[in-house]
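Progress note, project year one: complex with MF3.
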Amino acid sequence: MVILRLPEEIERARKSNRIVAEVLNRLRDKVKPGVRTKELDRLAVEVAEKRGAQPAFKGYNGYPYALCVSINEVVVHGMPSERILEEGDIIGLDFGVYYQGFFGDAAITLPLGKVTDKALRLMRVTEESLYAGITQARVGNRLGDISAAVQDTVEAAGYSVVRDFVGHGIGKNLHEEPQIPNFGKKGRGIELKSGMLLAIEPMVNEGDYKVQILPDGWTAVTKDGSLSSHFEHSIAITDNGPEILSKLN
Ligand code: MF3
Ligand code: CO
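Model obtained:
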C-alpha cells in the first residue's frame, strides 16, 4: 500500500489520473454507433502517449490491449475488437496509465444513442454507488464503510454487486493492498488513513451477481445474461476528505 506523504507525491498521482480522465473524455466524444471498439483502443493509446504516459493494462497479466471495452452483459475486461457499436448498447470503458512513477485508473459506462430507461437507471445507480463509497473514504473510517455504502446503494435499487472482482489500492503498482470489495460490513476492515490511494470500482448487475469468463480468458459476462455497469475513480484520502483524482471534465 502506498501512503502519500509529500505534496509532490500527491501531485504526481494527480497528474497520472488527470491523463486517464483526459483519455476517457476523448473516448466519450468518440463513442457513437458505427465505431469499432478497436478504434477506441487506438485513440486511448494515442492520447496517453501524447502526454508521455504509458498505458497500464497492456501486458498486465498478459492482457493484450490498452483499454477494456465492456458492452451490455460484459461486466469487465471486454477486449477491443472489430465489433461495431450499436444504438442501444451500453459500453464500459476502463483505462489506466503509468506516468512518472504513479498509476492512474478509472472507468465509465456510457449509453449509445437512445438506450432503455432500465439501462439508464442501472448506469445511474452504479455511478451513485461509486460516489456513496467515495463519501465514506475519510480518515478514521474503515474499509468496510466504503464497501457497505456501495452495496447498500446498489441493493436498495434492486441490483446486485459483483463478488468476483474488487477495487484496490493503487499508486506505485496498478494493484496494491488493500482489496476493496463492493460488499461488506460497516465498521469492519482496516482503518483509513490520510495519504491512502484507492481505486473504488463498483460492478453492478441488473440480475444475479454471478459472472463467468469467456474462453478468451478475459471477458467477464453476467451468468444470467443481464446488463452490467461499471464506474471507477482513483481517489486520495486527505485530511479534508476524499479527493477524486480521476474526475472527468
Ligand atoms: N480497472 C481494472 C482493474 O483495476 C482494469 C484492469 S485490466 C487488466 O483491475 F488488463 F489490466 F487487468
Ligand atoms: Co481498477
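The mean pLDDT is 97.
The first strand starts at residue 54 and ends at 55.
No further modelling is planned for this target in the current period.
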